[in-house]
Amino acid sequence: MKNYFIVLTIALATGLSANCQGIKVPEAVKDAFTAKFPSANNVKWGKETANEFEAEFSINGNPVSANFGIDGSWVETESVIPVFELPVVVNTAISKKYPGASITLAEKTEKPGNKISYEVALKIDGKKKSMELNADGTVAH
Hints:
By secondary structure, the protein is of the alpha+beta class. The protein contains 3 helices and 7 strands; from the N terminus they run ααββββαβββ. Strands 1-2-3-4-5-6-7 form a 7-stranded antiparallel beta sheet, with helices on both faces.
């Protein structure tokens, strides 16, 4: 829960900082965002790169971020998920690589073409580590 709060705090601070800088989001990006996430709340915009915008928001109280190209094309969505929502193959891969590790935070990343990956924060013998895996349980590079 503490990590969840830290991630949310950083996301909100980044969003607020970007808004304070007067980010001008193209209408194509706003329209694409609204079409994809009609139930989004507390939307904060920032610039990921010169040609990519990031919206940080919540859906049903859960923190989410989504990136869009300057033309409104969707790039990716990242969301914090409950650990129990990780696929079995992902949990199995983590257990094999780090026996006895506990998962303290799980995030799901979705990209065009139905590409899904997961990033997890682990605690192993009191040390923190992160790991990114594909939906099939293989380690992402």
